[in-house]
Amino acid sequence: MLNRLYKKDEVPPIADILNENNTLWNSYIDPLSGALQEYKHLMLASNLLTYRVYRTSTGDYFFADNKFSDAEHHYREALRYDKADVNVFHRLAAALSEQKKCTEAELILTEAYTAFPEDLATRLFFYKALYRL
């Protein structure tokens, strides 16, 4: 949830950026530890959407750097906050597949298929996973 701009010649190594992201995420208070644990008031619940979006984005950076375990962690956290975006399920399944956790990936795709039965991409991922097994 923090963005920083660098001059082209001053961009730090990706590993440093990812480590700093993990440090920042570990320092935040879990939004579900307070009132949002019990109450899903519309004004408060929109905070969870923000957390989901930024956790997903952080997971994408880890995925792009082939740090699939870290990407998995951030995608799982994103889904813990808000399961309204089917793409997070797809990304988590991809991170799990890259770690050879195919059974877990299949369970995630099954959950996505159950939650979003009309989503064509989910159907495609789901059926591809079934026929690969």
Q: Quote the distance from N terminus to C terminus.
A: 38 Å
Number of strands: 0
Q: Kindly state the percentage of residues in helix.
A: 55-70%
Rounded radius of gyration (Å)? 16 Å
Low-confidence stretches: none
Question: Residue-averaged pLDDT, rounded?
Answer: 83
**Beta-strand content:** under 5%
Write down the CATH topology of the domain at 11-26 and 35-102: Serine Threonine Protein Phosphatase 5, Tetratricopeptide repeat
Structural class: mainly alpha
Order of helices and strands: HHHHHH
Main sheet makeup = none
Number of helices: 6
Shape: globular
CATH architecture of the domain at 11-26 and 35-102: Alpha Horseshoe
Q: So what's the CATH class of the domain at 11-26 and 35-102?
A: Mainly Alpha
Task: Give descriptors for this structure.
mainly alpha; Serine Threonine Protein Phosphatase 5, Tetratricopeptide repeat; 0% strand
Describe this structure in words.
The chain is built from six helices and no strands. It has 133 residues and is mainly α.
